Each structure stands twice: as structure tokens, then as C-alpha cells.
Amino acid sequence: MLDPHIAKLVAHVATSTDSHAATRLRDLGKGVISCVLGSRDALDAVAQRSYSHPNGFQKIVLLPSCYPSAELRLHIWNSWIRDEDCKIHNHAWNFSSLVLCGALENVTYEVGEGSALRAYRVEALSSANGWASANYTISDAGNIPASESLRVTMAEGTYYRQRAEVFHRVAPRTAFCATLVAQEPFQSSGSFILTERGMPAAVETVPMTAATVAHLLSHIIEMRTI
Questions:
Q1: Is 45 a residue whose pLDDT tops 60?
Q2: Domain definitions of the chain by residue range
Q3: Which homologous superfamily does the CATH classification assign to the domain defined by 4-222?
Q4: What is the pTM for the complete model shown?
């Protein structure tokens, strides 16, 4: 289980709104990544809870959430990700995010007007240790109209906060892009995906290998953006 003092620190960073919030998040991420790379046990633990997310990115969970607390993780996009893999969605929690390297496009949507999209409710299954697992149940929630409201390209060094209820779609605009995400405590047990395509009733993911996690973390350190 995550040390309660560390959990409080992650929650504090996730909810920071002052002028030092981005620096605080970067420093926390750098310290945790260095610790993970310096410990085989820590690296194995991170690998076991990290995976390729169905929304088109690699999710490395540095500090896990013992539901419903905060979480610290990396999101990484590679050049082989297609825009259609990056689905419109909201979240079960508010979050803060810092673009460590590369650039991404963040498109937000207004719900209630526009073309009707199929909505699916997504819930993460709880694991035996209390963390939200990498497996999801998906249920049809009917049609929801939505239209694009804002499209912003975020370059390296961009820091932003987003509320849980906001629907958005994120897609990389460089061959390699990484963001450091501090998730606030859960506000609900699930979130929604909006899509023109159907969705399976469940998604099961495969944990990353320790070698893959070590390679990705080392690459970020080598780029000197954290």
C-alpha cells in the first residue's frame, strides 16, 4: 500500500494552483523516477501497474492510487499512435499535467449540442491491493451530442489543470511526447468515452516489462526535460 505521507504529497501537488505548481510537479516526478531507476524492486512494481492504455498512450504509474486517493504517472505517446485511437473522454478525477517533452493537441468538447455520439461508461476494476487496476468494464450509456469547443497545441513546458467533467481528446503532435500527470482523489467510480464506433464490454491490458519501463524512464531523463 502507498505510504500515506507520499499519498498526501501527491494530493498536495495535484491540487496546487500557485505559480510554483509546475516546478513542484516536475521536482516530484524527477525524484520518483530517479528512485525507480535505482531500485529493481521499485522498477518491477511500477512495471506491474503500467500498460498501454486503450486511449492510445503508454501509462506508467509511478505512484499508485489506493482508491480513492491521488496518483502520479507518466503518459507517453509514440509516432505510431493514430488520431482515431485517441478517443473523446472525461475523467473520474481532476488532474494537473505538465508536458515534459514533445507537443500534444488538447481538444475540449461542449456536451449537449452538436452531433450525437455513442457514450460508454468506463469503470476500472479494483485490484487485490486496493489500487485501480488496468482492467476496465464498459457499458453502453446511449447517445450524447457533443461539439468541439477549443483546440490548443501544448508545447514542452506547458502546465495545465483540468476538471473531471470536461470532455477532451489528446493526440501527439511530435514523434515522442510525454506528460507528467498528478491525479486528484476520485470524484466518482467511472468516466465516459464518446465515440462514433462501438466499444467492447471489457478491456484487459497486459503489464509492461521492467525493461520497457526502464527504457522509457531513462529516455526521459536523458532528454533533460525533467
A1: yes
A2: 4-222
A3: Jelly Rolls (2.60.120.10)
A4: 0.91
